[in-house]
Amino acid sequence: MRLVLAMAGASGSIYAARFLKALMEIPGETWFVASPASIRVFKEEFSTNVETAAQILDFIQEKWKPKKIHTFHFRKFEDIGCDIASGSNIWDGMVVVPCSMKTIAAIRTGITENLIERAADVTLKERRRLILVPRETPYNRIHLENMLSLHDAGAVIAPASPGFYQMPNSLEDLGDFMATRIFRLLGREIDLYPRWLSDKESD
């Protein structure tokens, strides 16, 4: 699996962190971009002093100690001329988690002022899987229209709305729910929480 993974400046760093933790433990290759706003939010939500995407990965490694068999490449948020800004390079899909409404608006209108927006634009034009994970509530009409337009353009809108039938005991459990859903949207069956079973199926 070859992915582009981006963090935009919305609340919900736990969703990105748990997806990254699980990603570390499977074979593959990921190009990772974090916006300055996302790094600031990550610092506040995890009470840490990370300053770069690489330090976010180090923090996750130290906190949860996953086996690191995945390969990560770090790209600068402002570098719109790097490899993942071009469709001549190949990746299977792109995930933006969490995804800010500003980023959604920019992708919807084709404005590519940074690498996250440009890589998302390329992902759409090359007809690759683009998964956007907004964490906002409530939605106003502008938000809804932007998301509907992106849906119609081929993106998958996967709001950070974890279920509770798995009886979560921690924020990590909620993050794992969304991470599992993202993996399934990418075509990977990775179970980080118990699947729902009816009474008949569990007998």
Task: Report what the structure shows.
The structure is a single chain. With 203 residues, the protein is an alpha/beta fold. 43% of the residues lie in helices and 15% in strands. The protein is built from eight helices and six strands; from the N terminus they run E-H-E-H-H-E-E-H-H-E-H-E-H-H. It has a six-stranded parallel beta sheet with strand order 3-2-1-4-5-6, sandwiched between helices. Strand 5, helix 6 and strand 6 form a beta-alpha-beta unit. The longest helix has 15 residues, at 171-185. It is globular and about 45 Å long. It starts with a strand and ends with a helix.
Find the count of extended strands (DSSP E, 2+ residues).
6
Average pLDDT number: 95
Largest sheet: 6 strands, parallel
Number of helices: 8
- Percent strand equals 15-25%
Helix content: 40-55%
Radius of gyration: 16 Å
Note the quaternary state here.
single chain
Q: What is the global morphology?
A: globular
Instruction: State the low-pLDDT regions, or none.
Output: none
What structural class is derived from the secondary structure elements? alpha/beta
Q: Looking across the biggest beta sheet, what order are the strands in? A: 3-2-1-4-5-6
What letter string, H or E per element, gives the SSE order? Answer: EHEHHEEHHEHEHH
- Tell me the span between the first and last alpha carbons: 36 Å
